[in-house]
Sequence to fold (474 residues):
Amino acid sequence: MIKSTRAAAAAVIATLLTGMPALAAQNLLDTYDQALRNDTELLTARAESGAASARYRQARGQLLPQLSASASYSRVTQDQSFESSGGDGLGGGASFFGGSGGESTSDQQSYSLDLTQPLFNWTAWQNKDAADARRDQAALSLSAAEQQLIVRVAEAYFDVLAARDALTAAREQQRSINSQLDRAQAAFEAGLDPITDQQEAQSSLDSAIVDAIDAENQLAAARDALITLTGRSPDELSGIDVEEDVPDKAGDADSRDREDWLAVALNSSPQVAASRAAWRAAREDIAAQRGGHLPNVNLVGSVGRSEQLSPFGGGGGQLNIINETQSIGVQLEMPLFAGGSTRAAVSEAGYNAEQVRLDLISVRRQLLVDINDAYRNVETTARRLDALDRAITSGQTALEAAQAGYRLGNRTILDVIDAQITLVQRRADRKQAWYDHALSRLRLRRAAGVLDFNELARINARLRGAPVSAEHSG
Fold:
């Protein structure tokens, strides 16, 4: 499932990029594609999943036949001598028993093939089951990391856009204030307005300059944060228009209430499922340690051949002694006393399992908090978007009223500047609220464990320069 999801996402990204203009701005899908290949957190999770799978194969291998072969060759040089003490009553005894047999050399070589098949090994069986549970845990953690990457990419991407919008707003405010400052200067020189209007307009301009400096720093920091995900400096990023509507709501938070999302999360959250797998592994560890009290039974068999080539007789002859063996049997190993270490190991595994069980409870409780927080943020940001739409409309009316009042002489230039600053800020706030709403939707689905590439593609379709339809079906 994980591999197929990644393959589908990569295929859709490749398709989208093929039809894009050569100089198109980098969009959200481009950034996600770069992060898929370069994000260290995701790559670490993939490596851990691979390692867990390898550990499972190791544990399973302990229950399969163990076959080994051995061979040896040696040359033995032997110097024999015979001695006999005299006075044994036999004439010529010294010449009969004494003397030297001389040096002799023999070649020895052997071959063997040994087979061991576990018949009963409780510890090995439970270790295999524990490794299987930890393999599932690693795969689920990888799924969680892939969903979290979507959120982290969107957060970093929108942070850059928000910082860019703030810088654009600050510079737009500077231009507006400069224009009004010129009017204030001309009105003061003509004796129509007091110098205080010019001075306060200058103060507003200085504040806008400070805001622009801060925004430049924030933009640089946001771009650096994006580099940590993608491994490369981002190009010009696709953004949104200030009046851009939220992504398609079909089948999303609007069709589910809070309890529905919580039920989905309890069934689909990879974090909860990974914690369940960890608890299962911990219980298998207890059973494995209890295996220290039980016997191990193995089926053992071997075949072998040995040859020894030795001198024979006094005429330079050789004798080749050949032994061939075949054996099969059952081997029983029963632990009797281990100094209490087995009982202590069982106790330790029990405490570890209790810790994992409590972690599972904590994860489930945090899931409830995350769902509540994400669901509330989706609703809040949606209301904030509606409110900002009305604020922009009323802000535009207020600016027009201030400009008309200034021309009639019943409003000051400062009123016009304040109205312009407020309108520019409301437009920037509206974009920020759009980013917040999109992120809230992603976080809600991530908390529920159902976040996928399609949701990111729906958001990407709203960006300038992005394909009109980026949704993957299937």
